[in-house]
Amino acid sequence: MSCGKKFDTGSCVIDILKDIVDAQNDVLHDCLTSCEQSIADLLGDTGGGSGFDTVPIILYNKDGSPFKGYGTKRGDHCNVKGSFYFRVKSVDDEGCAILELLFSNRPHVLEEEEESSSSSECHHHRFDPKSPAQQNCRNLRASGICITVDLDCFCHVTCLPAAATL
Question: Where are the annotated segments for Disordered (predicted)?
């Protein structure tokens, strides 16, 4: 049974994320999921557009723990960041999604680590919250850091209110 109205892949998480991608790409549809309000806000049901471009999400692993993705920008391997908040960029027919890590301009947690390697010394600046509660979710911004995930690895998705992240 599908949790999304438009898609029926057999996976609740995949169906909802496909609905979000469609909404983010301004494709109108009737969604009857728990993310209905966020999608409606994104689409600006009151007319004239909402100014929002993203439904931020949190994914949960099959063991119930929140999923945290890590990444770094090209050429900045010393600045590893972790986030519990994502923008869905795309979902393919095989159940893989490209997610962009979202960060606030004012993170709650910032750790600095120093490590040296044989070729050079690098000062690692890591943003590594231990739970979604440790990561500021106000004023989330797109990071340009994207990861690919297998949506069959997740059992739950939580939508945050629609936001302007770009």
Answer: 114-133
Q: What contacts 19, CB < 8 A, 6 or more positions away? A: 4, 5, 6, 7, 29, 31, 33, 35, 39
User: E-assigned strands of the chain?
Assistant: 57-61, 69-71, 81-83, 86-91, 96-104, 111-116, 121-126, 140-150, 154-159
Tell me the pLDDT tens digit for each residue of 93-134.
999 999 999 998 765 544 333 333 344 445 445 567 788 877
Q: What's the pTM?
A: 0.70
Query: CA-to-CA distance for 147 and 121, rounded, in angstroms?
Result: 27
Distance CA 19, CA 35 (A): 9
Q: Which domain holds residue 148?
A: 12-159
Structure tokens belonging to residue 152: 């069959």
Dist CA 154 CA 14 (whole Å): 9
pLDDT at 44: 80
